[in-house]
């Protein structure tokens, strides 16, 4: 704005005329901001340090992502994360400071669907799941296969996308109140 104001004043206009032109440009650009045509809010992956809302009745209220088990960029809908409980209910199964695994059920980053539509939520939310280890011996030695499938809580609050079915998180879908 300062650059636009200085260039208008240097063209020989009066100070008042230059200011009125600058303010009219500012008003029109703010209307553009309101409509979302000039700038759009950038939505990113769930990454290390992201605070997520816990949407089950396990006792946790807020979880901070420590690591995404998907890849380097971060987690999206249906991905498993490792998190630390930052806020918890006093009589819950999960206590504050505990390291837990969780499945991202709502993400602010948009995800494309097969039919061409996009799904995006207002917040980032996670359902806390337990770890189930299966002892499987491979030819080179003993390796354990880890499955993250059983939710700690017995209810899931809020909408859950149907993409969870593709991610083999059927137990979360059965506990959910609303499937989007």
From TrEMBL:
GO molecular-function term, one example from the UniProt record: large ribosomal subunit rRNA binding
One Pfam match: Ribosomal_L14
GO biological process, one term: translation
SUPFAM superfamilies: Ribosomal protein L14 (SSF50193)
GO cellular component: mitochondrial large ribosomal subunit
Keywords: Ribonucleoprotein, Ribosomal protein
Keyword Phosphoprotein set for record: no
Family, similarity comment: Belongs to the universal ribosomal protein uL14 family.
PANTHER family: 50S/60S RIBOSOMAL PROTEIN L14/L23 (PTHR11761), LARGE RIBOSOMAL SUBUNIT PROTEIN UL14MY (PTHR11761:SF21)
Protein name: Ribosomal protein L14
Originating species: Eutrema salsugineum
Organism placement in taxonomy: Eukaryota, Viridiplantae, Streptophyta, Embryophyta, Tracheophyta
């Amino acid at each position: 704005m300062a650059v636009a104001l200085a260039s208008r004043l240097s063209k020989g206009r009066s100070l008042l005329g230059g200011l009125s032109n600058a303010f009219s440009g500012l008003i029109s650009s703010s209307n553009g901001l309101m409509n979302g045509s000039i700038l759009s809010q950038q939505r990113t992956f769930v990454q290390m340090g992201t605070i997520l809302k816990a949407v089950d009745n396990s006792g946790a209220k807020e979880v901070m992502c420590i690591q995404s088990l998907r890849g380097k960029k971060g987690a999206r809908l249906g991905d498993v994360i490792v998190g630390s409980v930052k806020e918890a209910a006093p009589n819950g199964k999960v206590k504050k400071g505990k390291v837990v695994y969780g499945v991202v059920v709502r993400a602010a980053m948009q995800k494309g669907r097969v039919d061409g539509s996009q799904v995006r939520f207002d917040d980032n939310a996670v359902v806390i799941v337990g770890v189930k280890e299966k002892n499987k011996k491979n030819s080179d030695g003993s390796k354990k296969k880890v499955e993250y499938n059983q939710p700690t809580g017995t209810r899931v609050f809020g909408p859950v996308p149907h993409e969870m079915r593709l991610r083999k998180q059927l137990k979360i879908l059965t506990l959910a109140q609303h499937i989007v």
